[in-house]
Amino acid sequence: MKFAVCSLAVVLYSSFADLALAGTYLLGDNVVGSRFLDAFSFQAIGDPTYGTVNYVNESTAVSKGLVAYTSNSFTLRADDTTRLPGNCPGRDSVRIRSKKTYTTHVAIFDITHMPTGCGTWPAVWENGDPWPSKIDIVEGVNSHGTNQVSIHTSGGCTMPSSRSMTGTAGSNNCEGITGCGVILQEQNSFGPAFNDAGGGWYAMERTNNFINVWFWARNGGSVPADVKYSGSNIDTGNWGTPSANFPNTDCNLATHFGANYVVINIDLCGTWAGNQTVYAASGCPSTCDSFVRGTPAAFQNAYFEFASMVIYE
Ligand SMILES: *[C@@H]1O[C@H](CO)[C@@H](O)[C@H](O)[C@H]1NC(C)=O
Ligand SMILES: *[C@@H]1O[C@H](CO)[C@@H](O)[C@H](O)[C@H]1NC(C)=O
Prior knowledge:
CATH topology: Jelly Rolls
Bound molecules: 2-acetamido-2-deoxy-beta-D-glucopyranose
Signal peptide: 1-22
Pfam families: GH16_XgeA
Protein name: Glycoside hydrolase family 16 protein
CATH architecture: Sandwich
Organism: Piloderma croceum (strain F 1598)
Shape: globular
Domain GH16: 14-300
Helix content: 10-25%
Distance between the termini: 20 Å
Mean pLDDT: 93
């Protein structure tokens, strides 16, 4: 199962020991509740994607209630109370980045709510230096459609047209801003439908042979026990066909990806959500920028709630 997407040679040259161990990992970091504040730094930076957003630092996020936690939840949100004058850069929101970096690993995000609404562009992703070296795990805009998983690299990284995955590939050239995206088939993988289902789990496995992403809805029948209960070890070999698969057949993953940070952010408008063609096609009113500035109450559901982020290495 593990090598279904690789060439036959990989199977022939792998020892039985390699095969048995291929998908097994040990618990690294189990991040729950207030531990998110220890594991992540707030990035109060100008938005690289030109959104109508003002990423605040940790003390501002705490004092304005844009970050909150309980013993078993962690919430990040955009401001939903302020009408913005035209000279403000944008609506207060948050962008956090892990203090640690990871190379080959598995990251499991147990998400109970994701930001929704016109103008929102939520994302859970990993990136490193040099740009572009990025894995988008959860991403989409304006509550529209299903989740898109993408990888972005420098030149010389393409994906085969036929892959073992349940999602649907867009571009197969991973170079640059566009990257190679895979649209998930599950309607409840993104937006209001994700929240109505009680959320679910996203998992990303990165090896030098492939990058895989899985999605399981909260009450889906096939959630692996080791995903559900975050035990001391996992075996991705039992997880079934991934939603998105990026094999190394025409892409040297070991050289295109280095040490990656985990990033979680809630962008508003910007190059994707705020593209007027995309924004209007999502059924959203007026322009993204004016909607975000003038309609604070529309952002009451613009929040992420995480039950946990668990890293296995
Ligand atoms: C956080 O941001 C606020 C508002 O810009 C600023 O006044 C404050 O000094 C910042 N705090 C830190 C610790 O940087
Ligand atoms: C906006 O989105 C449309 C549709 O995806 C695309 O064709 C166009 O190039 C985008 N415009 C910009 C400025 O990125």
